[in-house]
Amino acid sequence: MLSNQEALAVFLDSGALMEGHFKLTSGRHSNQYMQCAQLLKYPDMTEKVVSNLTEQFKDDHIDIVIGPAMGGIIVAYEAARQLGKPAIFTERENGVMALRRGFQIQPGQRVLVVEDVITTGGSVKEVIDVVEKLGGIVAGVGVLVDRSNGQVTFGVKQTAVLTMDITSWQQADCPLCKEGKTEAIKPGSRS
User: Fold this and answer.
1) Where are the beta strands (DSSP E) in 76-167?
2) Structural domain range at position 48
3) Across all residues in the chain, what is the average pLDDT?
4) pTM summary value
């Protein structure tokens, strides 16, 4: 298991932790951005960090692993590979998180929900809703980076490889916007 400091080093070494003026998926602004795609492009690093998640759930009788598109797809695939289970993902259809592409969850299946980064946990909550509406049992949530520093909870077993307290602000309260020197950029998948 990686310590928080060791995990932080992996994210820094891969270029995943960025500094600047960013607009997050939640709409909030921050001076730091975690672009996990920079880490996930390296299979060896991906295997290493995801093993920290799968180790926590190896005895939980997981039937299937699911993550939201885009950030959760590679994480779900690697977690499922390590657990020897199938991987699926949700994606937005008319603005609503849904299963597509013939993916299914059977009633009673134990589902591990994974994601690359959480700030407010909105996407994970949407995936949990999809799983529960289909009769699946959410066995746990695993994330690579918890930007809320443990403040976001999902009512199930959960773990994060890296827990950080990255400051974010509502746009109206953003000191970087008030300075007016830079415009917030949105480097994520929904920009």
Assistant:
1) 87-93, 96-99, 110-118, 137-146, 158-163
2) 4-179
3) 92
4) 0.87
